[in-house]
C-alpha cells in the first residue's frame, strides 16, 4: 500500500504494510469511470429496458399468463369495467414490450441516461480515488 502525503508535509512516498496479502487495488482514472458509466446508461436503454419489460411479462407475443403484467392488466380491466383503457400504463407498457422503443424514444433516453451514467461514474471514480477539489496532491493506493 502506497501513501503519498504530497507537497503538504514534504515527506516522500514510502511503502506501507499491505493488508491484502500482496494484492494491490487498481486505481481507475475518473474519465474511465465516467466512460463506463455512460456506456452503462446507454446499454440500459438498448438492452435493459426491453429485458425488464419481458421479465415483468410484457413480451413480443403479448402479456405472459401468470405474470405481474397479467395482474396489472386484470386490475386495470376491473377498474375500467372490463377493458383496458387506451393510453393507460398497461397499454403503454404492452406497446413497448411488443414493438420496442421507437427511435425517438431511444435517442431521448440515450441523451438522458448517457450523461447521467457518466456523472455517476465520475462521482464513483472520485470517491474511489479519494480525490477532491480541496486537495488534489494526495494519492491513495490500497
Descriptive terms for the model:
142 residues; disordered N terminus; 5 strands; 54% helix; mainly alpha; 4 helices; elongated; single chain; two-stranded antiparallel ribbon
Main beta-sheet annotation: 3 strands, antiparallel
How far from one another are the termini?
Answer: 5 Å
Report the strand count: 5
Q: Numbering strands along the chain, what is their spatial order in the largest sheet?
A: 2-1-5
Rg (CA only): 24 Å
Low-confidence stretches: 1-8, 134-139
Structural class call reads mainly alpha
Residue-averaged pLDDT: 76
Strand content: 5-15%
Approximate helicity band: 40-55%
Global shape? elongated
Element string (H = helix, E = strand): EEHEEHHHE
Please work out how many helical segments DSSP would assign: 4
Short description:
The chain is mainly alpha-helical and 142 residues long.
What does this structure look like?
The longest helix is centred in the N-terminal third of the chain and has 27 residues, at 30-56. The radius of gyration is 24 Å and the shape is elongated. It starts with a strand and ends with a strand. Mean pLDDT is 76; it is low at 1-8 and 134-139. 54% of the residues lie in helices and 8% in strands. The relative contact order is 0.21. A hairpin with a 2-residue loop joins strand 3 (58-59) and strand 4. It has a domain at 29-118. It has helices at 30-56, 68-79, 89-99, 103-129; strands at residues 2-4, 14-15, 58-59, 62-63, 139-141. The protein contains four helices and five strands; from the N terminus they run ββαββαααβ. By secondary structure, it is mostly helical. The strands form two sheets. It has a three-stranded antiparallel β-sheet with strand order 2-1-5, with no helix packed on it. A two-stranded antiparallel sheet has the order 3-4.
Amino acid at each position: 500500500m502506497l501513501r503519498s502525503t504530497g507537497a503538504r508535509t514534504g515527506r516522500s512516498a514510502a511503502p506501507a504494510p499491505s493488508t491484502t496479502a500482496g494484492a494491490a487495488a487498481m486505481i481507475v482514472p475518473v474519465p474511465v469511470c465516467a466512460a463506463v458509466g455512460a456506456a452503462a446508461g446507454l446499454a440500459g436503454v438498448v438492452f435493459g429496458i426491453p429485458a425488464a419489460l419481458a421479465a415483468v411479462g410484457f413480451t413480443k407475443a403479448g402479456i405472459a399468463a401468470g405474470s405481474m403484467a397479467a395482474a396489472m392488466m386484470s386490475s386495470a380491466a376491473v377498474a375500467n369495467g372490463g377493458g383496458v383503457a387506451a393510453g393507460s400504463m398497461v397499454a403503454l407498457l404492452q406497446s413497448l414490450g411488443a414493438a420496442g422503443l421507437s427511435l425517438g424514444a431511444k435517442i431521448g433516453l440515450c441523451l438522458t441516461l448517457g450523461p447521467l451514467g457518466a456523472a455517476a461514474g465520475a462521482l464513483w471514480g472520485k470517491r474511489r480515488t479519494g480525490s477532491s477539489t480541496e486537495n488534489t496532491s494526495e494519492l491513495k493506493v490500497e
